[in-house]
Design goal:
Layout lengths: L4 H11 L2 E6 L5 H16 L3 E5 L28 E4 L5 E10 L4 E10 L7 E4 L7 E5 L9 H5 L1 H6 L2 E5 L10 E4 L6 H13 L16 H14 L10 H12 L4 H9 L4 H12 L2 E3 L4 E6 L1 H6 L10 H4 L9 E8 L2 E8 L6 H7 L3 E2 L3 E7 L3 H19 L73
Parallel strand pairs: 1-2, 1-7, 7-8, 8-9, 11-12
Antiparallel strand pairs: 3-6, 4-5, 10-11, 12-13, 13-15, 14-15
Helix pairs in contact: 2-5, 2-6, 5-6, 6-7
Bound molecules: manganese (II) ion (MN).
Manganese (II) ion binds next to loops.
Length: 464
């Protein structure tokens, strides 16, 4: 009988010694909690584990254990290999002469026949090595950000276990454990850790290991809590409550999570949010509101780019009698549009689609590389007005974007992409954000092509 993805994952994990656990770029609570929980649990089983993420853990999660060890750099092997093409040369002897006074090491090859040329020599620097990669909460390898670009070879050489709950997961792993009914990756991991702690049949390990200790349970509960918006979002399932109760019973520090994530805001965050509120533009005729954050606002308040996260969910979308709220944020050489539905009859994904983005009915996003408020705000707003007017059967405003400005990512059929699609440099070209966080409802609805929604903290109301 064919093994389930869970059984296959357990088998690969049991065999591996050196494991790299990764989460998506711009990590959210589920990515951070899942990566660190699995890291700590695997270490309890005697594995050597590295926790990897392209971006640093947002400061809001610093109360969690081991956040300082999440790294964007993998340890590489210390070997430097010099290869010499011997097809035209017969080698006699190999030796070396060390000249420490000149900081020099000469490698000497004596030949019987033929002569080496400089272009016969090639080098191989140390490569990152692992027995197993476990990618968590990530629907495709592009979402790993710079990690995938930096260690492409490692990804091709090493078996990957892909554990995720996002619709549209690319199935890029050797083992793909994708559970769309799970609220979070952390919820899936609870079941994995229960099984991993049980000794395999026929092994000489007799005692079960309790992998759900208080720290690990706290990390996992953080993932479930943030991906369900503190159990407020409609993706919250009976199972998520059961699992959460199990984690609390295992010692998860639920009050600590709530206090740090939902009841603490930095002064810089409050100032930034104040600016967002002051900048609200209202268009009752076209039934939307929007606000903006300029890159200068982050500087002015000494705020990080992640600190806009939550403002749209906690504040902007609480306005009644509109179809949706939008936040335009200038960051990382791009203009990000984050959309949240208010009217349940309306799909914000359609609005995001206008700009080459996507998402779900209640939460969607788009990204304009090299965009800015000065260059793009007017155009975006005009196009939305036109879209709304045509829905409402009103006269249309002009200004459609050329179709060639729209580009979408395509999924590669064969596990890893053969080539890493790079962000287009051309200004005004609309692309999907490649750092979309999870859906949580209202962000957890299925969409065919765009699994994750926006990096502006869809479900993490109050985060960062
Ligand atoms: Mn998640």
């Amino acid at each position: 009988m064919e093994l389930t993805p869970k059984q296959q994952a357990i088998e690969l994990i049991r065999k591996a010694q050196k494991i790299v656990v990764m989460g998506h770029a711009s990590p959210d609570g589920d990515a951070v909690g899942s990566v660190l929980a699995l890291t700590l649990a695997l270490r309890k089983l005697g594995k050597k584990v590295t926790s990897v993420c392209a971006d640093p853990v947002p400061p809001v999660f610093n109360f969690l254990p081991n956040t300082d060890e999440v790294t964007a750099t993998l340890e590489t092997s210390s070997e430097f290999v010099i290869s010499i093409d011997t097809s035209n040369v017969e080698v006699d002897k190999l030796g070396y002469k060390n000249h420490p006074d000149q900081n020099k090491l000469n490698i000497v090859i004596k030949t019987l026949s033929g002569q080496f040329q400089p272009d016969n020599v090639s080098f191989n620097t140390g490569q990152a090595k692992a027995d197993l990669i476990i990618v968590l909460d990530t629907n495709d390898v592009e979402r790993l950000g710079s990690i995938y670009d930096s260690y492409t070879q490692l990804f091709y050489e090493t078996p990957i276990i892909n554990i995720d709950h996002h619709p549209g997961n690319d199935y890029f792993g050797k083992v793909n454990w994708v559970d769309l009914t799970a609220t979070s990756t952390a919820e899936i991991l609870v079941s994995l850790l229960e099984s991993l702690g049980t000794p395999p049949k026929g092994s000489n390990q007799s005692k079960p290991v309790n992998l759900l200790d208080a720290d690990i349970a706290t990390l996992l509960l953080t993932g479930i809590t943030t991906d369900t918006g503190s159990f407020q979002n409609t993706n919250t399932t009976p199972k998520s409550f059961t699992v959460a109760a199990q984690l609390v019973a295992a010692g998860a520090r639920q009050q600590e999570i709530v206090q740090h994530i939902y009841k603490t805001k930095r002064l810089s965050t409050l100032k930034l949010w104040g600016k967002v509120l002051a900048n609200i533009n209202e268009d009752r005729a076209h039934r939307f509101i929007y606000s903006t954050v300029a890159s200068s606002d982050f500087k002015q308040f000494d705020a990080e780019e992640t600190e806009t996260s939550g403002v749209i969910d906690e504040l902007l979308k609480t306005v009644p009698d509109i179809d949706f709220a939008m936040l335009l944020t200038e960051k990382k050489n791009a203009l990000y549009g984050s959309l949240r539905g208010v009217n349940k009859e309306f799909s914000v994904a359609e609005v995001a689609n206008l700009f080459g983005g996507g998402g779900h009915q209640m939460a969607a996003a788009f990204r304009i590389p090299n965009g800015s408020l000065a260059d793009n705000e007017r155009q975006i707003v005009d196009q939305i007005k036109q879209f709304q007017a045509s829905r409402q059967g009103q006269p249309q405003a002009p200004q459609a974007l050329p179709a060639d400005q729209v580009s979408m990512q395509t999924n590669q059929p064969n596990r890893l992409p053969t080539q890493t699609p790079k962000a287009q440099a051309g200004g005004g070209r609309f692309q999907l954000p490649n750092t979309l966080p999870d859906p949580g409802q209202p962000t957890n609805q299925t969409t065919p092509s765009v699994p994750n929604v926006d990096d502006l903290g869809a479900h993490q109301a109050g985060l960062k």
